[in-house]
Protein 1
Amino acid sequence: MAVGVVFYFTNRTLTQSRQINQQINEVYAPSVKELEQLENWVVRTHQLMKSWATIQRREDDLDHQEAIDLCEKNIPEQVKKIKAYSQFWGDEERQKLSNLSDMIVRLLSSYSEIRAVLPTFDSYADPMNSMLAEEYFLSGGELEHTYDEARHSLMVLTRIQRETMSEKIETMNAAFDTLNKLLVNIAIVVLLSGIILAYLTSQSIIRPVNSLKRKLQNLSQGIYSVHQTKAGNDEIGDMAKAVHSLITNFERTKEFATAVGSGNFGINHEPLSEHDEMGKSLIRMKNELASYRDDMERQVAEQTIEIRQQKEAVEGQKEKITELYNDLQSSIDYAKRLQETILPNNELILSMFPDSFVLYRPKATVSGDFYWFKQKGTKKIFAAADCTGHGVPGAFMSLVGHNVLNQAAKIYSSPAQILNSASRLAGEVMRANSGEHYMKDGMDIALCAFDEEIMQLEFSGAHNPVYIIRNNEVITLDSDPFSIGTYVNGEREYSNRTIKAEDGDCVYLFSDGFVDQFGGPKNKKFMRKNFQNMLLSACHLPMAEQKWRITETLDQWMGDQEQIDDILVIGVRIKSKY
């Protein structure tokens, strides 16, 4: 019967689990995947269209072609796929999907209008066209609002599908838990039945009665302890009488021990016999505990008052410290989110330089180092910047540095012109905010502009050089020895260095965090010579593997040492367009 019950519940559980698993694999998991793909495409399309509206490009530009494909093909087809899965969703989710479809239609319509305003390379020459296109992306505008609502709806739908899938999995797990409990209970019943049968069998076996009788008589004097047995008219009956006497005496001992354990030290007790060592020990214990209790009550009373006062003081300090820590951590977390918004994403970097890497390791939650990539016409501009300090002060300086680079790059494309303009803007910001007390905080930077049409690399830097590895030789382009924003406009000018690029050149930009890091067997700085040798040993590898090799070298060098500064290394392999 037990086997039949096990078979029935096991078969039912497996059938239910197969049905749930089929729903997960055929409905919910694909729904989550397609919703995430649609979100990625919506985000990518919005970025491409914003670039379309702000950056002048030819009609055959790859970003333009990708934007058109996403708007006219990929996103509409993706919406159809999701609608196919939605027939298995609930009514509320289908309504949300319908609303999402309407928002995506409005988005695609707006993108179509932008493409109509700026259809060709020459159409950017008309300022009115550029102004009309850029108005679509004004903060708080209808397009941005629709885009935010669409992304929110996508995240809500994805979360609902994930939660539904999790509920299904929990249902399946609960069924298996129930089956497991059933099997355990059946096993316990079978085991207990076997024990009972074995016990009944053992009771029928005759034991050496005389030996057991002597042991039970000794126990009646307090030498051993046993449980009471049933009385009879044979030798077992004699043993039962002895056990009964034993239990009576032990009951007295138990009552005495219980009373002493409860703090009743006035109770009297007589040993069971002269051999009753346990009874004698209990009497001695009662007397000692009575004396010890009096002393302890006095000491506990005194210590309780002192501990209560200390606890109140500590709790008050703890609340203040916790409040201050939470406020500080919230501010730092918000600063981190602000800083992350200025850093280019991997998609932008790889679209400009497919074979490249960025090693970015802040010393604290936020960083004074930041990296910057921008496409301007045929030039691909990229930089590694190191602002004064690290942590929160460095992070705020990095926001200033990022903004002035963006402002300068709107007008200039030459690295030296960008740095001169950025230095002027940064100086104005710091002087405007500091009054008579002019801050000397600045920014060290290495900035390159690569024109793939003519295979030319331009460089300008403040304190930070750039390394180019060609044919296993290091070419160093030195920087100017003064920082961005540390001098009055017109006092100094940054120089522009130009070099003919060759296919396969490896270009490295970096801050001083890596070369200044202490470590190694003698706890010294890494230094630039070791840094160049490390790059030479890894330059033949793909950039992704170079990043892994450089990271491993850094970790081994640091060991248990603390990181002393923000670390930033950018690697780019030059590829000929033709």
Protein 2
Amino acid sequence: MKYISFILLATGFTNMLNAQITYPQTKKVSQKDNYFGTEISDPYRWLENDTASDTKAWVKAENKVTFDYLSKITYRDKIKNQLLELNNYPKFSSPIKVGEYYFFYKNNGLQNQSVIWYQKGINGTPEIFLDPNAYSNEGTVAISLAGFSKDKKHVVISISRAGSDWQEFKVMQVADKKELSDKLEWVKFSGAAWQGNGFYYSRYDSPVKGKEFSNQNKNHKIYYHTLGTLQSKDKLIYTDPKNPLRYFGASLTKDERFLFINISEGTYGTEILYKDLSLKQKDFKVLFKGFENDYGVIDNDKGMLLAITDRGAPNKKVIMVNPLKPEEANWETIVPEKEELLEGVGTGGNRMFLSYLKDATTRVFQYTYDGLQERDIILPGKGTASGFGGEKADEELFYTYTSFNYPPTIFSYNIGSGKSELFRKPELKFNPEDFESKQVFFTSKDSTKVPMFIVYKKGIVLDGKNPTLLYGYGGFNISLTPSFSPSRIAFMNNGGVYVMVNLRGGGEYGEDWHKAGMLNKKQNVFDDFIGAAEYLIKENYTSKDFLAIQGGSNGGLLVGACMTQRPYLFKVAFPAVGVLDMLRFHKFTVGWGWVVEYGSSDKKEDFDNLMTYSPLHNIKAVSYPATMVTTADHDDRVVPAHSFKFIAELQDKHTGTNPVLIRIETNAGHGAGKPISKAIDEIADIYAFMFYNMGLEWR
């Protein structure tokens, strides 16, 4: 067993606070693997078996140490109460028009899951369509709308339990909210694409009992389900046994003429097959060949297909394709590539709405299907706008705009006039204008200019003593854009500085920016994050004694890599649900889909590169920042074994006095669908752990 005692000198404390941690004894096994002549020990391999009794006992022991530690922080409950108060206000989604009804999500304030409401007409009386909170006392069941039938009479609802990626599909009638007998299981990464009296969906075969959340998922399949029949009667539409590690998804144009099979081998690069259902085409044909580029079909325009692609255009463009002559030489460019990234294209009112990113903030333009730009849609400021989707006959759309100091606000948009009007604005118990947000650019290690947002309460003093939380992701072509969080208000009210950095590997500046932070260039991402930390210290926002780093999933890898590469640069580290064992990530659930981003230890060149930064394999006998790893027992995206093995190794080798703990949530997953109560508990613990280890009091 390992013992540490540490002394915390807190501002305003009259006495020194002493604490002693005894970490659980984590057994080691003599597991060794040979990678191209290099022998790698994996002494905690047994922790990969998440359902084994010894793993469960270890989880219980680690959680006891962590929660005993957190319980001694005197202001922990104060933080939680402040978060509850700040989060307790009604929150709405933009309305979705479905025939004569409008659907929307609403949370009264502290409901664990948002409730699905609907009303007849925009001025109708709202009523509850479906309340996910009724499905679980702890609010651990999340429900979403997966797809409406073309006649708007039926909707598929997707049910997820305890944060798992596994979905269960059921069907409801819109008019009377009646739930039908249809029940589909073992659905994953799928919507419901309606056609006729049924819909297409994607699923896996039933998993091995006891390994539902860890075994590798293989052989994704597309089925067609006819309403009123058993799942066992569903018709298999597409599978590819020769390529068991691929994702398959079905989609249709809104007129249901064209059926597409969207294929990917990972998180980047697609192949699209199609059938023209009006011609009773028997077999699928190739529309876009994979997997070197991304493609997405926007709509059918008189038998021609509008699509978005980054083929020959890293920032993406809109093209028109004749499905009878889909070769690249026959493409017509409708909207050429611009200097900014084309993030996505929505349709409604027989128009296209092109959403661009300019320095990680949204710009939206209205176009005709012929590629004529009609107008620049004026947004409230530099933030994030989403929505801009509807039916061809619609004259009005809705969108949501938000920023760091601008809570999500819903606007109605008139397609004909281009005028936006306020539809719904949240009523807050604080003034967002008390807070300031600015964007800066710093120079990374290789002289690349990298942007980041810095948010704080007005009047802050740049004396190097501000508790600062630096957040990043940097991967999978995902863009981080401004968003609002009431929980950050409590943090900033206590002098906190929140920083979000747009690292390479993300999608903020197109595919070139993404590729500059993947595979053998992944170190650029870590260099950017470290560069952001050094900038904040140089500019006196904070110092290494008041700097915390945070990231989840691929961002958990980011934090794990940076804290092992530069352990003395940060005071506190929060790797959440992280990919931390870079040699074995592809052996669990859908981890194989990340090989296109990271590479695979099955290849010599990739193995050599992965070993340079794999957090688990780069822990040394040095002093590390105060660390609280967070994960969950039902995370079947990034299995908790990553976090288990990482903290076991860290607790064994850490030589300093900072606590290194793991917080393991039960009945929760990778993050999506997490109940508000669990989310607030976790955020309160993060802030408490951060301030306590910086020697700060919470006001």
Protein 3
Amino acid sequence: MSKLIIYQLFPRWFANYNETRKHNGTKEENGCGRFVDINVRALESIRDLGVTHVWYTGVIRHATAQYNHPAITKGKAGSPYAITDYYDVDPDLAKNEAKRMQEFEDLVKRTHEAGLGVLIDFVPNHVSREYKSVCKPQGVEDLGEGDHPEWAFSPLNNFYYLPGERFTMDKDLQGYEEYPAKVTGNDCFTSHPGENDWYETVKLNYGVFYQGGCEKQFDPIPSTWVKMRDILLFWADKGIDGVRVDMAEMVPVEFFAWAIASVRKEHKKFLFIGECYNPGQYDAYLRAGFDYLYDKVGMYDYLRGVTSKGWPAEGITHQWMQHGDERLKHMLYFLENHDEQRIASGFFCGSGRCAEPATIIAATLNQCPVMIYSGQELGERGMDMEGFSGIDGRTTIFDYWGVKSIQAWANKGKFDGGKLNDAQRELRGFYSRLLTLAREDKAIQKGQMYDITYAQGEGFNKVQHFAFLRHAKGETLLVVVNFHDREEQIHVRFPNDAFVYLGLEGKASANAVDLLAGNKYRIDFVPDGAMDITLPAWKGVILKV
């Protein structure tokens, strides 16, 4: 499989051209993007950025203030992770609500015709407190249908219950009744969850008796397993190419081993990408069949620390070394997603261009895939006061909103960047060159990597600089980045060990061209040789030797 370049896209605001942006505004006031508005021009523009797959976030029907109780709905638009019907799509995203599923299927077809794969969310750990499928196929039993709520736990139940307790919150719940209370999605075994709990969700029961020492009761197969497997097959049959699995580590790995094998009997190349934050669990979930796992607590956290907190760049070495060669191929690198703060926000580093060195590393250090979040390539700041989301450095997933940078690029549906300013245009050009290179270059896709920083001696600033080689037969790349906020002259030595490890032939005088900017260099590329290169603040080069 070639290197995946994933573009996370939130349809609700991606194709919303309404510029009202009223705080806590309704759909009618602030507008809402729709499936039909993600047109051919949008998809071709995404593809030309270097992307291979689009992750459509918030597709499956979830709780909204229009249809659900406002006290247990986050924001007017609701959380896309509080699913109310696994067999339906969000009506907000449809031009014709009655034909909403057909409009989604048409989007899948359009995306494929543009040469892009399609990913959506699979949320296996929890559902909305008001889950009730209105679109389930004939003969399908709903989640919770047939449960025995008088039992706190049973592998026959789809939910966990708190018998004799009524659901309460420090909110006005008039008109909402939940008795007995169900356990909240973040493993909160109380009938009175707090504001910081996932109070809008309830935990699904896969046969793990949490209050009984986490005993696993998997024989016979719990009904939740079968129902969730069938949901995966339903969406796979819609033609999507894979799923991003929300909070995978909160669901027993045994379920995934069983379900992934079942899905791949019918859809052999179906992708599974797991949100997993516990490195001690990585190998188990990969053995279960996951293709890729988030490298959040490793590479993301460290690249952010180098970029915004002055952490030494040499620590990047430890982040890739901790995995080993085989696991490393299955880690997903990123610097933004819907959970994390925007690079250009005041909470990260204030400018999208300051993350160029980190982005170069994420895209080219190894064979593993890389993901960017819509607007990242434009320096979106995420500093709006939208409604339920305050000024937190994130683009809201709970409110109806128009995102300024995306609207400037979309230009009322033309998707030609007609309203971008020079800085946005320049940053998007950088992402386009980098991601296209990552997608197409054989040394980046499949080549070996040698960490030059790890082997450097005196004269190399390991705090603010990082350098490595990528090599495939017939091609060698030298990557050097500068994390300093000023121009730096960087002294790079080529260890003899690099030539031995990569099987390189030294050249006393070699041509090199920067594949990002086109600048040309002459270097002495020989064992224990060296070169000096001057890099501006927050910049990097990818030299083809």
Protein 4
Amino acid sequence: MRREPKGYLALVLHAHLPYVRHPEHEDFLEEDWFFEAITETYIPLIEVFDGLVRDGVPFRLTLSVTPTLAGMLSDGFLQERYLRHLEKLIDLSGREIERTRWMPEFHPLAQRYHRMFLEARRVFADQCGRNLLTALGRFQELGVLEIITCGATHGFMPLMLGRRNAWRGQIRTAVFDYRRHFGRPPRGIWLPECGYEPGVDEVLAEQGLRHFIVDSHGVLFASPRPKYGVFAPIVCRSGVAAFGRDLDSSKQVWSAKEGYPGDYEYREFYRDVGWDLEYDYVRPYLHGDGQRTNLGIKYYRITGPGNHKEPYSFERAAEKAAIHAGNFMFNREKQVEHLEGLMGRRPVIVAPYDAELFGHWWFEGPQFLDYLFRKIAYDQQVLAPITLSEYLAVCPVNQVATPSVSSWGYKGYAEVWLDGANDWIYPHLHQALERMIELANAARRGDFGTDALRWRALRQAARELLLAQSSDWAFIMKTGTMVDYAVRRTREHITHFSKLHADILSGAIDEWWLAEIENKNNLFPEIDPLAWAD
């Protein structure tokens, strides 16, 4: 008989991508972010969950699915494009089987990739009916997965000038959209970039949310200081609980020097056939502009710190993933045993990660999770996996405190999202927000009456503001990758918003142009522009 655990492990995966949808182009490079994440992260995670449920393994995991990602996963246009993308990979991997026939170090790998892509098509098209949200919703109904939400477009709350209208617009839109996809309200939220400032929790409570996550220092520097550190949630005066990230479990996975993903047996992310093979051979699988890009077939392992790379082995990498899962579990056991003795109550170790780390960046990540949950279930009795809502039910009495202003990322206080490379966007975002509040107040007063075209334009103005507020654009400008695209997207949404604002006030709506941008930026069909009203 299994005894009561001494503590809990709350694994939290944050599944997020910015909204990238370009029907005006035949194909679009940035849409590959979405396609790669489906093939390498979301489908492998679903397969891991399926196997655990099938085998009766009592696992628990919290997964945030951001509204932009949910919008893309449920979009028929992008679903069709993903299938087209997958068919190319199936064709390329079939050709690779032939090309590597007399290359014993690569031929088994080519066969594995071909099977992997065929299985991805089966899961996506046949098992999930092209919408992966159906599979995730099923795991939530089974009670093994808690799906939480995020800001509507991952807008960074602390840089919205403390305007509750802005927070409410992001959060209410997210809650409405979650209910549309999953048929129930969310209980928790991953604040975008873990960005918190006092008052945000009051808007969360207003919208029915019960818990959120902050980085370690958000809890450690709370007022008053928390008795149990990050190993128990604190409860804001609004009644919403804040969970803090555990540093030790994070370092074991995130650290570039000490983290598991850097092990030399694991697959090398930066060696891809899109760059390694002759151009004429890979040209049919590239985008229309012909630029080389990653195609998803990678034959080498990390090997070492230098440029020399040796062939990858699925089997050796799987063995190392099992070893690392055992090591991670052992460290959490010792951590729980120590903490339970100090605290006099069952601690919770909150381990949040970007979901795309598991599979896309760390190819073996889903295997690691599979081994970890199986080992926790059968190889120890010290700790148990738990979701955040379940922990609040098991341990409902917690200290009242106010988290500190904080974020995750470099230095932990918003510096990534407010920097010399991206600070120019904020005057435009702030002005657009003030104008949105002005429009929402006018609509609430009845200034627009029942003018259906004006209300359509108002709803689209809200969408364009939300899309402009996405923290992804500032992040990309800071990191220096795909900067032109991030700048273009910011300017495009601000320009759309400005024209809509002027047209709504004048009553002269360009219906043809409105329909065009509604078709392109078509997320949040149930958006409520009055969320921005005072």
